Amino acid sequence: MMQFTETLPAPSHQISPFSSLVTNKNQVHRTRPWPGFPTSSKNLGTSIGDANCMEQLLVHCANAIESNDATLAQQILWVLNNIATPDGDSNQRLTSAFLRALIARAAMSGTCKLLAAMADLHPGLNLNMMDTHRFSTIELASFVDLTPWYRFGFTAANAAIIDAVEGYSVVHIVDLSSTHCMQIPTLIDAIAARPEGPPLIKLTLAAAADEFPPMLDLSYEDLGAKLVNFARSRNVELNFSVVPSTPSDGFSSLIQQLRLQNLVRAENGEALVMNCHMMLHYIPDETLYENSHSQSQSAASSFRTMFLKSIRSLVPTILLLIDEDADFTSNNLVCRLRSAFNYLWIPYDTVDTFLPRGSKQRQWYEANICWKVENVIAQEGVQRVERLEPKTRWVQRLRNANFRGVPFSDDGVSEVKNMLDEHAAGWGLKREDDDVVLTWKGHNVVFATAWVPN
Q: What pTM does this model have?
């Protein structure tokens, strides 16, 4: 790491969602035996606090908000607010984040006005999400070291990059990462140890990561200077450049800049590495425009596909795609809520294994999760940027763009396993075809894939 010193129908007004939970609780509890969550109960009093029941309550609340039924929404919110405390166990904290996000959605949409008023008056229903912290480089390096959430992708990608650029004297790395180059110092260390000596590294960063957490309290120019100095301390020459480019238009400015440089790269025999780490899901997907009849918007509906095809035209030496294995793309709020709830329990569950309650790091860690929950639940349109797609869909996109997958080497997989040994026992690794997947208690968390032009 950086060494800088199915959807439920809307509930009827005549049938309380709480009675449906009582009469159907056996059905509710048989569906998902989550590790870390209590799933057995003898009555509603004990079941109402488990993950399945809380999810059902959130679904009923979302339906009430969408149908502008303030009375029903307030009833459910009152229950949730009393059983899902922001400082409780992992299940309660998860539900509390979704509770606040639903209130924020009601307030921002201008619907369910009684609900919004209640949120303003009720001290336990706070519309303001936790502020996201701006990290120093030291803090961010420590933050990404807390779990394998980021380190998994760093380790797998670095091993694949080292193999792919063997023999090249110049390596151009385009870093599309949500963690502000935190992967790069360990890559520099690995490259510096090459038997044939280190290559010249050209590092290009798309200046887009300030739109979402984790955020860095440092300019890109200062970050570049630190990286250059670090590389120099390892006897590696590093050229750092920043291209103002954002995911909202498929990184069009970055693609244009790379095209201008591609002729020179081909003549000089440079390796081109596209390192995409938890960033491509911020590129708008088709669901953003599927209800629009605008020609200009329909033309933009394939930003992700166009981006991958543009990268393919540059004939990269290797493309690494690491991202979270979940699906947040549905335009149906309840579907999206269920998907997010069934995925984002993982970071809340893991944090109890390594950070004490009340610690600053834990506040920062959970504030970032709350930001994601609010964006997925409360926002719509272009403001909803957390549009995760599962690995299977990204694999198909890449194949359609004329890439083929390449396996990670046994040595690279061993490095990932060694890294996981430094963390809690719940973390695991599995191989799926050419890819590797990080798991928590058997559930997919992050996937890593490597690709070359077909």
A: 0.87
